[in-house]
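thread: overnight batch results

M.L. [08:02]
morning all. the overnight job finished for the chain we discussed friday. pasting input first so we're all looking at the same thing
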Amino acid sequence: MINQTSSARGRLWRYGPLILWMLFISFASTAEFSTVNTSAILRPLVLWFLPTLSEAQVAAIHFLLRKLGHFAEYAVLAFLARRALITMSRAYLRQHWFQLALLLVVIYGLLDEFHQSFVPSRTASVYDSAVDIAGGLTVLLLFKLRDKAGRTQQVEV
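M.L. [08:03]
and the structure it wrote out:
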């Protein structure tokens, strides 16, 4: 009985943050996070920090912040996917964490944009999917490089 409880707790700890983050990404795909709604928050902030900017400059910064948001959302998704995969009990899944996490990032990024195509105040863009994938891939590559560096360091010692 104790093993089942600890196993259930372990699965919740492993998958819970990943699932919650995926739900957040889905919420961020709604009208609540449309350009118009984020502009109502970001525009005053940008102008507070940089009051001499032109409207075109504010619009450019708003655009860049939104793309950075895409990048960051999927960087976190990749981090949480890797975290879940490397702690799985199945060796195959642990060993192929990179490919599986990248597959999740790609599929979820494409589905996210597909979903946005049905939201009137949002626009679907393959370029946003590319930014999403780039965010996830960046984090996964950093972990891969760190793991490789760690293995190289162990061999040298």
